[in-house]
Amino acid sequence: YLLFMNNDIECLKADSVEEMLQFVQQEEVGICGARLLYPDKMIQHAGVVMGFGGIAGATFIGTHETENSYMHRAACIQNYSAVTAAVLMTKKSLFDQVGGFREELAVAFNDVDFCLKIRALGKRVVYTPYALFTHYESKSRGLEDNPEKVKRFNGEIVCLAKHWPEILRKGDPYYNPALTLRKSNFTLRDLSVEKVGEPFPLEILKDIV
């Protein structure tokens, strides 16, 4: 097995690795991701939905760890299309089989792409809230806050979309098409702004999605 972990991660639950391992060792599971909190105990990651913000994003960002989430999903073990590789466990054999992380995605979305490659093999991507960590997000690499980084980030958005246009067009199979792609808290769409099932429009993806 392989466990990927950023250098800005702090474990909050002693058996978190074992919680992830119990899923990854199952034949039908290819990846397991964890629940990540900001230092102020707000959720930073509880799974990833394809299409959030026009490309992909973490769920329930900014929800306090003690708050109820939509259908209690932040607190439930479940399948997702992707999870963040800030803390991610997978089988080494599967990692090698799909060629690992795509080199063109040097910083952003390499984890999402990897999860989608594993799902294409028919394996599940599992999120467990019982593996719990603090993520001091972007503390080491910084934010996308200058023209060079923005250009690289936009290029990675286009790269991911070119490899996986179908799921962006049709919608994430683990997300209700009546819910908005403009927020991460699973609220209903404002039908005056976005139609049910309609992808979130990103100008740089207008010829792809």
TrEMBL record:
Domain of life: Bacteria
Annotated InterPro entries: Nucleotide-diphossugar_trans
Name recorded for this polypeptide: Glycosyltransferase family 2 protein
